[in-house]
Structures are given as C-alpha cells and as structure tokens.
What does this fold into?
Amino acid sequence: MINKIKLTACAAFLSFTGIAQEVEFTEYQLDNGLNVILHQDNSAPVVTTSVMYHVGAKNENPERTGFAHFFEHLLFEGTENIGKGEWFKIVSSNGGSNNANTTDDRTYYYEIFPSNNLELGLWMESERMMHPIIDQKGVDTQNEVVKEEKRMRVDNAPYGQIFAEVKKRLYENHPYRWTTIGSMDHLDAATLEEFREFNDKFYVPNNATLVVAGDIEIEKTKKMIQDYFGPIEKGAPIEQINIEEEPITQQLEGTYHDPNIQIPAVVLAYRTPSMKERDAYVLDMISSVLSDGKSSRLYNKLVDDQKQALEIGAFNIAQEDYGQYVVFGLPLGETSLDTLTSEIDEEIVRLQNEMISEREYEKLQNKFENRFVNSNSSIAGIASSLATYQMLYGNTDLINEEIDIYRSITREEIQEVAKKYLNPNQRLVLDYLPQTDSE
It folds into this structure.
C-alpha cells in the first residue's frame, strides 16, 4: 500500500490566481489487480465514484472499429441486479448524476452522489464490472443510439470529418488511424459473441482504476471497496498496443469535400510524441502562444490585424502513444487557403527563429498556473485527473507535480521544440472544401 500524503501548499500565484492546495491521495491495489485511489475532502457532502478502463479505440480489431465507444453506451443497459433502463433512474432518484466518455486510449465512467450514497455508487460500478447483461436486445438498442450520435456529431456536423481525415492520413499502421466512434458497418457486422469477448477481455479489474473522491472516510471506504470489488475475478493479462510509425519526411497533401459547409478550411497537422514526453508539454505552450486568446499571435495577426481569417486555432492533441498538433483556419473574404497557409507558416517560422519575449513568457506561465488551479477546483475534476495520471501516465503524483514541468520549460525549449516538430516536411496539409453540386 502506498500512501501519498501531500501536506504543503503550492506557492502563491500571481494576483489573479488563488492558492492551489496539493491533492492528498491514498493509492493501493486489490488482489485481483484493481488499482484504487482515494481522495478525502470533507468540505462538502459530495462524493465521486469513477472507474477508468484501459481500453479505447486503439485496442479494437481493425475490422471491428467503434467497439470501445459502443461499450460506453452498452454498459449502461443493465446488469444481473439492475434492470434494463433502470441505471439512470436509480442515479437520479438518489440525488446523483452520471456520465461516461471514451477516447482512443481509455473509457471512463463516473457517478456523483451525495456522500451518504457512496455505497450505492460503489455497488453500481461493481455491478457494471462483474454482472453486465450483454444480449442482442441491448446491442440492437445501443446500435441505433450510436448511429444517431454519429449522424448528429459527425456526418451532419459542419467540419465534423476533420479529425477522421487527419488521423487516417497521419497514421499508416497505428490504430489511431481510425476514429473513436468507428464504423457503423463494423458494428452492424459484429456478432453477439464478439461483443461478449470484448467485454471479457477488457472490462476486468486488472485493466481498471477505481477512484473515490470527496466526503469519505478512508478506512470505511476501503472496507466497502473490498466487499464490492474484491470478489471480482481477475482477467487475463492484457498487452497494450505497441506499434511504431515511420517518421513523416515529406509533406503529405489531401483534399476532402464536406457537404455541410460553405466556407473552406485549411488544416495543417503534425504527428507529435506521446503525452508522457516533455516535448508534449512544450507543444501545449506553443499552442497557447499561437492561438490561445485574442492577443495570441495567429489570432492577433490573421483575425484582428490583417482580416484574413474568420477563425484560427492551433491545438496540441496529446495522446498516450502519439499526439497530433493541428492548426485549423477559416479564410475570410477572398483570402485563399494557400495565402492562409503561408501566413500561418510565417508565424511558425518566427517562433522557430526567435525566442518569445519575456512578457509573452510571463503571460504563458500565468495561464498555465491558472489552468492548474482550475483543474483541481472540483471533486469530479480531481477524480478524473487521478485516474488519468495513474493509468495513462503511470504517475499519479503528476496531479501535483505536472505544474512544475510547465514552470521549468524555458523560452529556448519553446523555440527548439517548434524547430523539431513543426516543419513542412513533417506534416499533412488538408484542404477541407465545400462539396460542389457536381460531386
């Protein structure tokens, strides 16, 4: 058992920030391999119970994409002791709320209850893990739900296909090449047995992290966790994905026509390292310099000053194995996509050739200090962070220590990392265009 007790407070931030107390937590593992993290905060009578499973879109069969996201929905269908359609009724009738989400790397379920319903939350998550009902009726029901979600959020959404088009061009071998929501044809073709096998493989205690955060007593909570989760059988060992991509050495180019848009867009996308790498943190800061707020370089130049862009943004999408650094721009008026690309490149080259100013650097540090404070400002946010740092980064202490990484990043590093990754011969240029009547 490892007790992580943090007794000191972070240094006082600049005038607009408060003081962020370090997050105390207790971390241990059950005999069946379930990782457990407890965070006690008795300031309000609220508790979050959450389970993160180390399964996402990247763990799927290439011929059965969409399974992880599908299970985000399917595992609300009911269990041996929770009737079909009763999950949400039980939560709401006991003063709670709940939700789930899926990425390429993991799936996360959580409930927020008044603290006197802690045991109920633990029971429900143990039921989801131990006694799920996976039958054809539930599969058929959720199949329609997922199809409707895809229609609304992807197929009929303006610019809804951008990340799908980027990913399939940036990756040749790694399963990041497909989308989290996956293929509806794959889900239609899947058998009930395939769904059950996926559940038996991945939704097991040795592939999960349970976090309980809020108004709890540590020893009583440990007893309940042992009672509800201890009897669940350990699954077979799971080997995580380990697929490397060859470096991109010449500019990739692509075109996509979207029937849902009238204004074209240009997308510049670069493959970047794992979110666990220091360079990924530097790329976060580069994103902020380029497009975080109206005073950022790209926004100030292309939207405010030169009136060449309707919208501009640079995003570091950090993931467990690789990341994508994506710059997205909508031209204004008669500005061409080539012109917009040239103007964006000019700012990237300036970042590569000149260190940011001391004033920009100070502003950048202030933003990340403030972001750190906000990330630990709610019990639900702390629970999610604890699970993420433990599972995907392999270091739960990052909930307190990650800010030190950002503080240690220098102006020189920002320049160096921009030179290392944001080059024309290492990227995809995607012209994202309206669909014409002839297409």
Observations:
- The two ends are 62 Å apart (CA to CA).
- The mean pLDDT is 93.
